[in-house]
């Protein structure tokens, strides 16, 4: 009940192992934490990565990003466990996630500029990383016109979801590798977006 059918690879293999334990702990203590409050906590931890990048502590920023990603699963788990799912909560969580995505990549790009200077390569890959993340999210939103979540249609699924993108940034940030992180996220996002776009068109002709 706590898991989702649309979970990405990282959520399925890693994040849910932690988030479900956190959710069960909250439920066992009967703490009055709502799903929306957990969404806000995840958001605040996620956006804290930006100033941490500015302090030139990429490894710490990466850790906060992954913690935020794990907690982002807790809000949905609480909603399902407490039967508190709502369109308002889903919209609230989705919008906060987009703000985090943008600010995380912005922080990573600024860190890269401080370390290696403002280069054309950095600007291009930062733009592709941000736009790629937004395109994946938009594809999932727009694709629901076909009656179900696009991730559940066809064979392409899981490899460019938000949990995967944030995990990639987390891993590369541990080593201060800002450009490979931006490149990897960009390529993953656009391969998935273009591939799933074509797949949805073919499946729903």
Quick rundown:
This protein is mostly helical and 205 residues long. The chain has eight helices and no strands.
How do the strands and helices of this protein lay out in sequence?
Blueprint: H1 9-28, H2 35-47, H3 49-54, H4 58-81, H5 87-116, H6 120-142, H7 162-174, H8 178-203
Helix pairs in contact: 1-4, 2-4, 2-5, 4-5, 4-7, 5-6, 6-8, 7-8
Give your account of this protein's structure.
Helix content is 76%, strand content 0%. The protein has 205 residues and is mostly helical. The protein has one domain (9-203): Up-down Bundle (Four Helix Bundle (Hemerythrin (Met), subunit A)). The two termini are 33 Å apart.
The biggest sheet, with number of strands, parallel, antiparallel or mixed sense and barrel status, is:
none
> Helix segment count?
8
Low-confidence stretches: none
Helix/strand-derived category reads: mainly alpha
How many discrete domains? 1
Averaging pLDDT over every residue, what do you get? 95
The CATH superfamily title: CDP-alcohol phosphotransferase transmembrane (TM) domain
CATH class: Mainly Alpha
Head-to-tail CA distance between termini: 33 Å
How much helicity do the residues have? over 70%
CATH architecture call: Up-down Bundle
What global shape is seen? globular
């Amino acid at each position: 009940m706590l898991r989702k059918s649309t979970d990405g690879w990282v959520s399925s293999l890693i994040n849910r192992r932690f988030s479900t334990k956190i959710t069960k702990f909250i439920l066992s203590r009967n703490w009055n934490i709502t799903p929306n409050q957990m969404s806000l906590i995840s958001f605040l931890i996620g956006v804290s990565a930006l100033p941490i990048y500015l302090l030139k502590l990429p490894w710490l920023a990466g850790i906060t990003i992954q913690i935020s990603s794990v907690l982002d699963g807790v809000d949905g788990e609480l909603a399902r466990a407490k039967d508190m799912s709502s369109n308002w909560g889903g919209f609230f969580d989705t919008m906060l996630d987009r703000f985090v995505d943008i600010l995380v990549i912005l922080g990573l790009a600024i860190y890269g500029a401080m370390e290696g200077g403002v280069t054309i390569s950095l600007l291009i890959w930062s733009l592709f990383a941000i736009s790629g993340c937004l395109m994946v999210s938009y594809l999932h939103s727009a694709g629901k016109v076909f009656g179900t979540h696009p991730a559940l249609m066809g064979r392409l699924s899981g490899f460019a979801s938000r949990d995967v993108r944030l995990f990639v940034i987390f891993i590369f940030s541990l080593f201060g590798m800002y450009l490979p992180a931006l490149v990897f996220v960009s390529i993953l996002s656009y391969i998935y977006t273009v591939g799933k776009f074509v797949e949805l068109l073919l499946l729903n002709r």
